[in-house]
Specification:
The protein is 59% helix and 11% strand. With 744 residues, the chain is of the alpha+beta class. The strands form 4 sheets. A 5-stranded mixed beta sheet has the order 3-4-5-6-7, with helices on both faces. Helix 3 runs antiparallel to helix 14 and helix 30 crosses helix 31. The termini are far apart. The relative contact order is 0.10.
């Protein structure tokens, strides 16, 4: 019986595709060669000098860790082509830690106790890094690590490049590059050992600059190996002679991979010495996390795929824990090797798996091949990595970053070179914090500067009241604040207030209104600056008005020791509108201005808009005069339009119901106010509610009465329309004036 179409389709999907597997194996082969080469170089960097007797075991540990983390992340990463291997930044710091442990151990530093202590430090570092990754991934906090100042990262990576260069000379000659070792390194018998490595490193660096292709490094390795052994063949030099002169990293003791930390060896670990390096070890998880996230983000751009950063943290975290338990060093994504799948068109996880399998095979089946690895090639690889870091973070950043940030990177590098890695990073963080504080203190926390002339409360005033506020509004100094306030910006705010208080060209201050609506936090030290403001207010006889202080800000002020107790020089209001109303009432109640506060009747107001030919008495025939108690609802939000109201006496409040069901005050209106006019003219549902605050008397003009007036007495209706247009125009003019002030 013939196969069904669905069955045939399934078979076609799982059919053997030779091209797919050949491409994946090729990419995995390239990744594996580079991983083995770099892992061997890192082992030579860490297990150098007195630890060179244990170099093979160190190589086995690092490559076995590379196998574990490479295989695990290949299966669990959100990107199928992920390649994870031991990285140079952690290796450099571990090499520094290893050298300090060797120097501090008694004896010549060549015993097994030194080796197992170094391996224990490596294991603890890998475990700590793995758990750190897991925690960040579990709490979805991968982006938080990016808040570390960028120049500090740049200085750290430039310092890494410097240490890689110094360590490369140690791998090739047995002596790291320092000023004290300079004459030794220039000796002819030593010079000849590092010169080929320098030459090869420069060649690789220039090639990568010219052709940034994944095949450049494998081809360079193949040519370098061939050239090295071709010279030996041409000059008729035996392997034993070359090895005796220190050109090869072997010989290694025969034997397969073994676990260095047995129960018996645990007793030889110098735990206090490891604890003395805890600060240096702690930098590895932080910097590794930054590097991982930067590499993963860069990979997103290269392969044009979304990568789950938190999943990557969890995957690489678990991989580092497993690799660390076997003595492997810290590893994470390789941007270039992970992009191989995209570059070569491989669409499976085979790249990472085959790369990991090669690391395992070299340990168990090809260990003798490692003893033929030339030191100049290994040193040149480390030199190349060092040159790449220095080029990226000393030369290229000069054209991308501000000069101050570049100087900070150079300074961190200089401190690392002169005093040490930890000292350089610590000094860089401290300097970056100081620079940040100085820069941020120059950013004004004042969003807008206003006065009582150009900003009013949402309270309708009579013309005479408005005139009084126009004359005296300069006495109210309004500062809308923003952002986070700390001691630097708080002191600048205090100086701004002092400057305004001492300005003889302006009226004396009556009130300083500080609006905290856009403030998201204050430092506890700011309480001191605000206490100085309050003391200044008392001495200069003005009032501080705080508006829209959230509960969090209020608690922060109180914890800082700021006193909100009974004080005539300090008032707190829930919002700016209520604070401004209080300030305006203080001006209007002043003895010098109270005489100008008076009321105008509706007839007096209409007199300016009604021509002599129109009798105002006829207009009142269309109105209803009503007296209502406190709490009477004239208009409900969303109700259809029905009437316009003129308030003769009393007070009303216009409120808006927000999305949370809370009533927000839009305006408070007194005698002479007109409400409901927009709904009446536009025939739209009411956008707000109007409620009386106290017993009030008002005139009501219904839709029907207005229609009747327009039909029977059009001249009278036109005069009334002019009156309403004037009232609306006054509101619009004030709004335009306020917008102009806010935009300046």
């Amino acid at each position: 019986m013939a196969d069904s179409p669905n069955h045939t389709e399934k078979l076609s999907k799982i059919s053997f595709n030779p091209g797919k597997y050949i491409t994946g194996l090729t990419a995995g082969l390239i990744s594996g060669i580079i991983t083995i080469t770099m892992g061997t170089a890192f082992a030579a960097l860490i297990f150098a000098g007195p630890l060179s007797d244990f170099m093979y075991c160190g190589i086995s540990l690092i490559l076995f860790g590379a196998f574990i983390m490479g295989a695990f992340t290949a299966m669990t990463s959100s990107y199928k082509g992920t390649v994870v291997h031991p990285q140079e930044v952690p290796a450099v710091i571990l090499a520094l830690i290893a050298s300090l442990i060797v120097a501090a151990m008694p004896g010549d530093g060549r015993g097994e106790a030194v080796f197992v202590t170094v391996v224990a430090a490596i294991i603890l570092t890998s475990l700590a890094t793995g758990f750190f990754f897991l925690l960040l991934g579990f709490f979805k906090a991968g982006n938080l690590i990016r808040f570390i100042p960028y120049p500090v990262i740049g200085g750290f990576l430039a310092g890494t490049g410097l240490l890689l260069v110094k360590g490369a000379f140690g791998v090739m000659t047995g002596k790291v590059l320092t000023i004290t070792n300079l004459f030794y390194l220039l000796r002819p018998d030593v010079f000849i050992k590092w010169l080929p490595g320098l030459f090869l490193a420069v060649i690789l660096f220039l090639m990568k600059r010219r052709w940034n292709h994944y095949l450049v490094m494998p081809l360079w390795l193949a040519v370098s190996f061939s050239f090295f052994y071709l010279i030996l063949l041409t000059c008729d030099i035996s392997i034993s002679e070359v090895r005796a002169q220190g050109w090869l990293i072997g010989p290694f003791q025969k034997g397969d991979f073994r676990q260095p930390l047995s129960l018996s060896s645990l007793a030889q670990i110098d735990w206090p010495l490891i604890l003395s390096q805890i600060s240096r070890m702690a930098t590895i998880p932080i910097i590794s996390c930054i590097s991982l996230l930067l590499n993963a983000s860069g990979l997103e751009l290269v392969v044009r795929e979304d990568i789950d950063l938190n999943r990557e943290l969890r995957s690489v975290g678990a991989a580092n824990i497993m690799a660390g338990l076997c003595g492997g060093t810290v590893g994470y994504h390789s941007l270039s090797l992970s992009a191989l799948r995209y570059s070569m068109g491989a669409k499976s996880r085979m790249v990472g798996l085959f790369s990991a399998a090669m690391c395992a095979s070299i340990i168990f089946f090809g260990s003798s091949l490692l003893s033929y690895f030339p030191r100049p090639i290994m040193g040149s690889l480390l030199l190349f990595l060092g040159f790449a870091f220095l080029y990226e973070w000393l030369y290229k950043v000069w054209f991308k970053l501000p000069r101050l940030d570049c100087i900070l990177i150079f300074l961190i590098l200089a401190i690392i070179g002169a005093f040490g890695f930890l000292e350089g990073v610590g000094a860089g963080v401290l300097i970056a914090i100081i620079i940040f504080v100085v820069r941020y203190s120059h950013i004004s926390v004042i969003k807008h500067t206003l006065s009582g002339i150009n900003y009013h409360s949402n309270v309708d005033r009579t013309p005479s009241q408005e005139q009084a506020l126009a004359e005296k509004g300069e006495e109210i100094y309004i500062l809308k604040l923003q952002g986070f306030i700390f001691f630097g910006t708080a002191n600048n705010l205090y100086e701004e207030i002092r400057k305004r208080a001492n300005d003889q060209a302006l009226l004396p201050l009556r009130a300083v209104v500080l609006d905290f609506r856009f403030v998201n936090g204050v430092d506890s030290s700011t309480a001191n600056s605000f206490s100085k403001m309050k003391q200044h207010a008392e001495s200069q006889h003005y009032v501080l008005v705080f508006t829209q202080l959230s509960k969090e800000l209020l608690m922060q002020f109180k914890r800082g020791g700021f006193d909100f107790g009974d004080n005539a020089s300090l008032h707190v209001f829930p919002d700016l509108d209520l604070g401004m109303e209080w300030c305006e009432n203080e001006i209007l109640c002043d003895a010098d201005t109270i005489c100008v506060i008076e009321k105008q009747s509706l007839e007096e107001q209409l007199h300016d808009y009604f021509p002599p030919s129109v009798k105002i008495d006829h207009f009142f025939e269309y109105l209803e005069r009503c007296q209502v108690p406190e709490g009477y609802r004239l208009i409900n939000q969303d109700d259809p339009p029905h009437s316009l109201y003129y308030l003769e006496s009393g007070q009303v409040m216009v409120t808006l119901r927000n999305e949370y069901g809370q009533a927000v005050r839009l305006r408070s209106m007194g005698p002479g106010a007109v409400v409901g006019e927009l709904g009446l003219y536009l025939r739209l549902p009411s956008t707000a509610s109007v409620v009386t605050v106290k017993q009030s008397v008002f005139f009501r003009l219904t839709v029907e009465a207005l229609n009747s007036m327009e039909e029977k007495e059009p001249e009278l209706a036109a005069a009334f329309h002019r009156f309403i247009v004037h009232r609306l125009g006054e509101r619009l003019a004030y709004t335009n004036q306020l917008l102009q002030v806010l935009m300046d």
